Amino acid sequence: MAQRIKIGKSTVTTTPLGLGTNKVGGHNLFDGLKDEDGVEVVKAALEDGISLLDTAYMYGLGKSEEIIGNVTQDYDRSKFVIATKAAQDPNNDLKPNNDPKFLKKSVDDALQRLQTDYIDIFYIHFPDDKTPKAEAVQALAEEKKAGKIKAIGVSNFSLDQIKEANADNQVDIVEDNYSLVHREAEKEEFPYLKEHQISFVPYFPLSSGLLTGKYTPADNSKFSRFSSKQYTAIMAALEKVKAIAVAHQATVAQTILAWYIKNQNISVVIPGARVADQVHSNAQAMDITISDDEFKQIDQLFKQF
Ligand SMILES: NC(=O)c1ccc[n+]([C@@H]2O[C@H](COP(=O)([O-])OP(=O)(O)OC[C@H]3O[C@@H](n4cnc5c(N)ncnc54)[C@H](OP(=O)(O)O)[C@@H]3O)[C@@H](O)[C@H]2O)c1
To answer: Is 63 helix (H, G, I), strand (E, B) or coil?
Structure first.
């Protein structure tokens, strides 16, 4: 089993693979979800030794946190790490709110839904356009001092906003859109985070399922953000990943997840899951070590993105 990862300057440590839970109770975001599946997804993660559960108020407007809160009552709290996020204001059409009072109330509300007395990682989910970022982070620093949270995160902040938020060196972790087919963060964000000892968690690591290799050339319309030329290139690259996967008796998804685990710029990869079997399969990526050469090959296959 892979070694534990330390989050930023905090005391929090986790396995290098976590669970994304926007399909656990996230009825406002996805059609056709069943709460029973969500329960099994969380149990599967905890049974397989996945320590980090990544949730948010926004996933079901509290429902994801509630499901996690219920399921985790049967598990040893010291063995898993909860990351949650807030910003969407239910009293203002879910517009981002980073006001210190709002953030502090959000921490208290999340603690209740999660049925726990501390949250390991608390992220500001989205920046608002009025609160000075350092003031918002200071509110979380006070929550950290009070023992309610253990690490401070920001998500969906531009690099300038991250710098402003981290004015007092208090940000431990950043969560942003990044994957082999969405590599913007590599240019300027990664060097800044590394220099300031801030961990990075990519969201959409499987590009919403595309990088599992389960889609065919005919499915381009399901991924309309990619032109047909780009989509064809992704399909061709995934065919080549398949050869590396076969050599490890692994799936394409496991091989791609093993690439993130080996990537020094990434702290924790948090693939989402709709059903428990996906979690069981993804968890096995922690037992797969790709070689330096295979790492470079996969890197090059997707270099154009
Ligand atoms: N901070 C933010 O603003 C933000 C934004 C987005 C997401 N997130 C977080 O990041 C996490 C990851 O992102 P994501 O879940 O949206 O996308 P993702 O990890 O790129 O893709 C996850 C989806 O791929 C499919 N999948 C996963 N494993 C599979 C497997 N082994 N075989 C086949 N299909 C598989 C499942 O969908 P289907 O079965 O439906 O195909 C699953 O829901 C989220 O769960 C959430 O916690 C954060």
So the answer is: helix
